[in-house]
Amino acid sequence: MRGADVSRDPCPWVILNDAGGAFAMGAIGGGTWHFIKGARNSPLGERFRGGVTAMRARGPIIGGNFAVWGSMFSTFECVLKGVRRKEDPWNAIGSGAITGGLLAARGGWKAASVSAVFGGVLLALIEGVGIAMSRAFAQQPPVIAPPPPSS
Hints:
Helix content: over 70%
Shape: extended
Radius of gyration: 22 Å
Strand content: under 5%
Oligomer: single chain
Number of strands: 0
Number of helices: 4
């Protein structure tokens, strides 16, 4: 593929890698969130125990939800790379839209459409910020002074 990113794993393996990373991110973030929430909602002498209980109960569930999203996104991105034979930001945008739509499909066509648009727009914003940051911090070519005038 032209312009293929050689720093990432090949497509079948990137799905597992992204699912594991998404699970870890969701479990750590969700665990932290629910620890704080459980500690705040516990009686004064039981705050730490309440936080740990809430974290153990909800952290893995949030991690699993993140893993499902990450694995679906990576799967669709690999499919789009294979079908389009290109590796560009449109693959990520399309993958976000398809993933958002499919995850909300149980809610009907309206919910799926809204989630698909939201997923596509969110990934377009993320890709746009990534492109802007790479352009902003790219190494500028050195300025070459013009040759001195000959007399």
